[in-house]
């Protein structure tokens, strides 16, 4: 359309994307689906897109990364437009807020502090600045500010890191392994004698301690589980392939045969 030069400008950058979202949300001529959305309905898509960015990076799918980053950026623009529609703030306010935060948190780059410090020292300084920010927001508890909307495994690690800063932590991984054995026993007992809600509670306790073990071992649990998922997918697809060579599907096999094929897939991967 000749009266929409920005909308159709292939080099319009951020102004183009912001205008596209404004038009999509226009109550008179926008998209009915986009108009109906709010923060709550869009939030799950935001989380999903962040994971797709992480997935592209983990797979080193650099050709996909640009598109995935664009999908994630769209989520930010969408939330900012919803906020503008409500008279709260706009995209520029979002950009200004994070810019102010980055400048304040890097006085060794944008201020008078010396850059002659280690990455470890910078991490400590960063935590000091963030603690001051939480205090300014009247977040006085050690665990205040750990977002409820985080994926549960990630939030578990963040909660544990916060507690560890004030000394509430096991001294080494061996103590965590002992706790895992204890929690596994409690889960077994619950499964045999207790109602489902208690089984779920004990299962959660075991997952929480597993996240703690990952932290002590320097393992990122989300990445570890994604890797396990990818490995399971890869090996199961091999099972499907070998069965297909025989003209069958997994439902036409049995556990013993598929377990043997699984061992074959493992052996092939190990060379």
In short:
By secondary structure, this protein is mostly helical. It contains 12 helices and no strands.
Proportion in helices = over 70%
- CATH class assignment of the domain at 13-105: Mainly Alpha
Order of helices and strands: HHHHHHHHHHHH
- Structural class of the secondary elements? mainly alpha
Low-confidence stretches: none
CATH arch. level architecture of the domain at 13-105: Orthogonal Bundle
Distance between the termini: 59 Å
CATH H-level superfamily of the domain at 13-105? MazG-like
Radius of gyration: 25 Å
Report on the biggest sheet.
none
Number of helices: 12
What integer is the average pLDDT?
A: 91
Number of strands: 0
Domain NTP pyrophosphohydrolase MazG-like: 38-110, 176-237
Organism: Roseovarius indicus
Catalytic activity: ATP + H2O = AMP + diphosphate + H(+)
InterPro entries: MazG-like_dom, NTP-PPase_MazG-like_C, NTP-PPase_MazG-like_N, NTP_PyrPHydrolase_MazG
């Amino acid at each position: 359309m000749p009266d929409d030069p920005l909308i159709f400008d292939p080099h319009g950058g951020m102004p183009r994307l912001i205008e596209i979202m404004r038009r999509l949300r226009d109550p008179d001529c926008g998209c009915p689906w986009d108009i109906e959305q709010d923060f709550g309905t869009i939030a799950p898509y935001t989380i999903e897109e962040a994971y797709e960015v992480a997935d592209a990076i983990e797979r080193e799918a650099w050709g996909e990364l640009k598109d995935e980053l664009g999908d994630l950026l769209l989520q930010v623009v969408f939330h900012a437009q919803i906020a503008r529609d409500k008279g709260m703030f706009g995209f520029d306010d979002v950009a200004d807020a994070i810019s102010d935060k980055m400048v304040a948190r890097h006085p060794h780059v944008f201020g008078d502090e010396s850059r002659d410090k280690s990455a470890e020292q910078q991490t400590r300084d960063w935590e000091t600045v963030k603690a001051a920010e939480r205090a300014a927001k009247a977040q006085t508890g050690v665990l205040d500010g750990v977002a409820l909307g985080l994926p549960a495994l990630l939030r578990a690690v963040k909660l544990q890191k916060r507690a560890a800063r004030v000394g509430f932590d096991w001294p080494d991984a061996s103590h965590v392994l002992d706790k895992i054995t204890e929690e596994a026993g409690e889960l077994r007992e619950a499964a045999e004698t207790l109602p489902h809600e208690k089984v779920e509670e004990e299962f959660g306790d075991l997952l929480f301690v597993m996240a703690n073990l990952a932290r002590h071992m320097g393992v990122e649990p989300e990445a570890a589980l994604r890797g396990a998922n990818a490995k399971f997918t890869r090996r199961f697809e091999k099972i499907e392939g070998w069965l297909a060579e025989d003209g069958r599907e997994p439902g036409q096999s049995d556990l013993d045969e598929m377990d043997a094929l699984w061992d074959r897939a493992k052996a092939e991967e190990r060379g």
